[in-house]
């Protein structure tokens, strides 16, 4: 859980700085589709 929140926090900072981001988390917390995020869009 801590790694997931740390990655999400870093991703948010990078997006605010104008970077395109991609985030892969495993295992998923609620829905399997939340594992893949590109610029905050869930796939």
From TrEMBL:
Gene3D superfamilies: Mur-like, catalytic domain
Domain of life: Eukaryota
Primary enzyme class: ligase
Gene Ontology cellular component terms for the protein in this record: cytosol; mitochondrion
EC number(s) per entry: 6.3.2.17
Keyword Amino-acid biosynthesis: no
Keywords: ATP-binding, Ligase, Nucleotide-binding
SUPFAM superfamilies: MurD-like peptide ligases, catalytic domain
GO terms for MF: ATP binding; tetrahydrofolylpolyglutamate synthase activity
Family stated for the protein in its record: Belongs to the folylpolyglutamate synthase family.
Protein name: Putative tetrahydrofolate synthase
């Amino acid at each position: 859980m801590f790694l997931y929140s740390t990655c999400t926090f870093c991703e948010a900072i990078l997006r605010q700085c104008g970077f395109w981001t991609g985030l892969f988390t495993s295992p998923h917390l609620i829905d399997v589709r939340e594992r893949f995020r590109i610029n905050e869009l869930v796939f």
